[in-house]
Amino acid sequence: MNWMLLLAPLMLGTPCTSHYSYVWEKPITSELKADWRQAIVEEKLDEAYAIFNELGRFVPDYGAPDCAGELGIVETVARLIDAASAHLMPEAALGIADKALSLQDLSNKQLAKFYSSRACLLRWPKPVEALEDVQKAIKLDPSNGRLLMQFATMKGGYLGFQSLFRRKQESRDTFRLVRRALALAPDDPVVLNNAISIYYATPQALGGDNRMALNLAQHLTSIDAHLGHFNQGRVYMVARRFKQARRHFRIAIDQPTLTVSAKIWFSGYLAALLAEWRRDDEAYELLKQLKSEFPQHSMPLMQLAVHSVNADHRHEEGIKNLEAWFAHPAALAVPWVGCNYEAPYPWAHYLMGKLYDRLNDKPNARLHYQKSLELSPTLEEARLALKRLD
Fold it and tell me: Which of 144, 294, 341, 350 is deepest in the core (most CB within 10 A)?
């Protein structure tokens, strides 16, 4: 199966009223980035958050909607943790999380949020500690369906269900958590989105159920048309019902209120569908169009590299696209930052390794596989690829 199918779901944000009156007169992204990093290191949270959003004015992939005025300190700090993590500053991110957990007069729900955020950071380097943090969060906020779903996805392993769901007991435990999360939050788009992914990505023998995934996607469509049609497309794609999948992807992409980031994501899945359908040229042209139409976004470069790997051609061009992605000013702050998302850099190095591997350039392939594992030691695909080289 195309690994893009197993990428974590896109979570759509909503813009809120600005809270900070921090005024910047430096329209140079590189300077803002340096200021942001310094504010994070010095733990100046208000200043760091203001800069983070200011970056979004110049590079749309940067920044989160400035919701601090409505969301308060909990969401503000949680978003800063995500941002520091995305910028490959794990120590700074963990420092913010630890500081947040030491704040006084926090409610159980607020503490649960911070444990959840820290678990996101620990998920790949220290998965056992991450699960412990989520369990602490659930004890503090037991009626929170999103926390149960987070535990389910982390326990089962969000990426690569095919290989990680090896024991039936693990599968039963995970689906028990999924059902509990759905019972607590039956109309929550995030919970539904994750549940759909688990049901369609898990082998049927271990509890996967495409019919259940489709039913949930249809329910999600009544709540969020963008995400619902997108998920229906994913389910039909896995079932190899390509015409139905294309129809739903098109409906999702043509929604008038769709954000640019969502359009790029959904179009990437449509391109993956076309490639699976042996319409490689059509898929390639779609991705080239995205790259041309949205040069300020880094994701089309990554999508083109993925296509080069999956279609097994245009390897040199794939390498050039990944080199452009690494150099892109938005590459370190992608719009899918958050706990249920794999970091982009390990995958980028893995893909670069694959492309060099296809060109029989073993030294460069080894270099990028090793770098991928340095950034994400649990990335089994890179480990297996490196083992094959040896």
Answer: 350
Count CB-CB contacts under 10 A for residue 184: 17
Report the first-to-last Cα separation within the chain, whole angstroms.
Answer: 25
Better-scored residue on pLDDT, 8 or 354: 354
- Whether residue 299 contacts residue 265, with contact meaning beta carbons closer than 8 Å, is answered with yes
CB 9 within 8 A of CB 197: yes
Angle at 68 between CA 27 and CA 96, to 5 degrees: 85
pTM above 0.85, yes or no: no
Question: Which residues make Cβ contacts (< 8 Å) with residue 76, sequence separation at least 6?
Answer: 45, 49, 68
For domain 143-258, the CATH class is mainly alpha
Q: Which residues of 266-296 are buried (b: 16+ CB within 10 A; e: fewer)?
A: bbbbbbbbbbbbebbeebbebbeebbeebee
User: Residues 221, 207: contact at Cβ < 8 Å?
Assistant: no
3-state secondary structure of 367: helix
What is the four-CA torsion angle of 113, 117, 122, 128, rounded to 10 degrees? 20
Q: Is 78 within 8 Å of 117 (Cβ atoms)?
A: yes
Residue position matching structure tokens 């089309």: 300
Residue type, 206: L
Look up residue 110 and give its two tokens: 């607020």
How does pLDDT run across 189-218, given as a tens digit for each residue?
999 999 999 998 887 878 889 999 999 999
- Domains of the chain, by residue range, sit at 143-258
With CA atoms as reference, report the closest residue to 5 among 383, 182, 268, 368.
268
